[in-house]
Amino acid sequence: MSTTDRDVGAVEKDDRLVRSGVRRAGRRLVPLLILLYFVNYLDRVNIGFAGPNGMNQELGLSATMFGVASGVFFIGYLILEVPSNLMLHRFGARRWIARILVTWGIVATAIAFVPNATWLVVLRFLLGVAEAGFFPGIILYLTYWFPGKQRARMTAWFMTAIPVSTALGAVVSSLIIEYTHGLFGLSGWRVMFLIEGIPSVLLAVAVWFLLTDRPGQATWMPKEESDALERALDAERSETATAGPGSVAGALRSGRVLALSWVYFGIVYGLYALGFFLPTIVKGFAAQFGTSFSTVEQGLITAIPYVVGLVVMVVWTRRSANPTVRVAVPALVGGIAIPVALYLSNPWLAIVAVTICACGVLAALPGFWSLPTAYLTGAAAAAGIGLINSLGNLSGFVAPYVTGALSDATGSNKAGLWVVGAAMVSAALVTWLLRRTRKAPS
């Protein structure tokens, strides 16, 4: 056998070992990450179910104040996002994510006992501080385990937790609110915060024992597979290092990072506007269309867009290979769909339009994270991903505040949802403009 044949054989063997290692790691790690994000996202948006089901009335919240309480979370998130991601890069995902889980669980549970609007705002801010670094930390963690070719698919599976938590969470939260009212002498919405805050503390124990920082530390993976996976990831990091900034400061100053922050802002603007206000919109069908739904029925209707969006997210990520198309097309479709919902004369047609918007948001998100991770590596990746996520998630403050303020000013949700559409369309346009300067991942 010639030297060339031996080299080709070695490469083919390495490819087989990498694929086998990716499958093994996916089965071991991704279900746990999905569960973590399920609990994380539910704790973040369950205020949307509490608001129209007793909290706003009990605490005397206007639509604007509800928007402030919903969105102030992201101010705390912004302040500590980059430092938290750098700590994860330094100390390892297992230790840092376990710490995040414990602190956010304590704060999330404490919200059950808020006496007034001021304390609600304070605890929502502290919840953002506690959760800072979780999501970008997971995105960074995936770069430690999965090469670029497989990472978009794994990211999509991880992010299925968004529609699952919103769809299942809508039903579960509604059931808790309706059937536990009076438990421990608390209103139903308070019991919901209590019950949904505890699991994150328990999951911190699972993370401490089950999460593995790097393939080379995985005692549950054959050494041949972990070595091949480390070689593939090292080669990818070396290539990526020549395409983007090599330092934390370079990542924070990068024009591409700032542009990607705007793209993410526009996409998640739609996500959070729907997450925080869709339950209120569905409850408003009674006045708009003369319909009447129970709390549980409202939860089931709220779940519809996310159930459909879950399927579209997975299928779109598998079918669309071009990163620009993967992000720009669904963002554009979702941005156009949401204003259409405002002018339909039937609640079910309105839900169809909202569902298309949700599908656009959810389909764009996994593909989006393939853009910065193809450009950033090492500490620069930790800083850049953290900055993109923190600036992008400012929409979590802006969206509910603007939507609530416009609702108070106009007596309608229409103006606020027009802004949602404009933000998503702008994200699609910026993604398209970035295509000429993007170094395509291998």
- CATH C-level class is Mainly Alpha
How much strand?
Answer: under 5%
Structural class: mainly alpha
Overall pLDDT confidence: 79
Helix content: over 70%
Distance between the termini: 30 Å
User: Which word captures the global form?
Assistant: globular
Q: What is the fold named in CATH at topology level?
A: Growth Hormone, Chain: A
Q: Tell me the total number of β-strands.
A: 0
Annotated CATH architecture: Up-down Bundle
Q: If helices are DSSP runs of H or I spanning 4 or more residues, what is the number of helices?
A: 22
* Total of domains: 1
Cα-atom radius of gyration: 22 Å
Spans of at least 5 consecutive residues with low confidence = 438-442
* Major β-sheet annotation: none
Order of helices and strands: HHHHHHHHHHHHHHHHHHHHHH
| Corresponding CATH superfamily | MFS general substrate transporter like domains
Protein name: MFS transporter
Domain Major facilitator superfamily (MFS) profile: 29-439
Keywords: Membrane, Transmembrane, Transmembrane helix, Transport
Pfam families: MFS_1
Write up what this structure looks like:
The protein has 442 residues and is an all-alpha fold. The protein has one domain: MFS general substrate transporter like domains (Growth Hormone, Chain: A, Up-down Bundle), CATH 1.20.1250. The chain has 22 helices and no strands. The chain has helices at 3-45, 47-50, 55-59, 63-71, 73-91, 93-110, 117-131, 134-145, 148-159, 161-179, 188-210, 223-241, 248-253, 255-283, 285-289, 295-319, 323-340, 347-368, 370-373, 378-392, 395-410, 414-434. The longest helix has 43 residues, at 3-45. It is found in: Cell membrane. Its main location: membrane. It comes from Pseudonocardia ailaonensis. Residues 29-439 form the Major facilitator superfamily (MFS) profile domain.
